[in-house]
Amino acid sequence: MAYHRGRGGRSGGKKKNRQVQGDEVIRVPLPKEGQLFGVIEQALGSGWMDVRCSDGKIRRCRIPGKLKRRMWMRVGDVVIVQPWEVQTEERGDIVYRYTRTQVDWLLRRGKISQEFLSGGELLF
After folding, report:
1. What does the pLDDT look like over 31-70, one tens digit per residue?
2. Cα 105 from Cα 111, distance rounded (Å)
3. Which residues form a coiled coil (predicted)?
């Protein structure tokens, strides 16, 4: 009987992107044109979240299947939101979720503020 050998090891053969923090080699994706920072306010189920965006609006955003299968989204996570072309003010897609280390980097660089994370207005 032949067993499936896989890629071996615990990591499954995947190599992760290492982030060096000593010389600030962290590459953090920033919102492109038309995208916004957001903080997840409420999980609604079926891949939908209420997200408070940096322009002050609360949008109902969906998590595309590509991200839904790869990572968990929780209340309080900082994300990048791509508003829909049709219902720009009410709906959007979550494009990226920041890790805690990346959020600290954004805070240090002044890209987001502590008030934005805690629920206040976004002040640069």
Report:
1. 999 999 999 999 998 899 999 999 999 999 999 887 777 8
2. 9
3. none
* Structure tokens that stand for 107 in this block: 């805070």
d(CA 124, CA 122) in angstroms, rounded, equals 6
CA–CA dist 96, 123 (Å, integer): 21
- Which amino acid type is present at position 41? E
Helices (H), 49-99: 65-70
Cα dihedral 30, 35, 37, 43 in deg (nearest 10)? -130
Pair of tokens at residue 111: 């890209």
Collapse the DSSP code of 37 into the 3-class scheme (helix H, G, I; strand E, B; otherwise coil) and give the result: strand
Q: What is the DSSP letter of 27?
A: -
Instruction: Quote the CA–CA distance of 18 and 55 in Å, as a whole number.
Output: 32
Span 61-82, average pLDDT: 88
- Does domain 36-118 fall under CATH 3.60.10.10? My reply is no
Token output for 61: 């955003």
Residue found under tokens 């979240």:
49
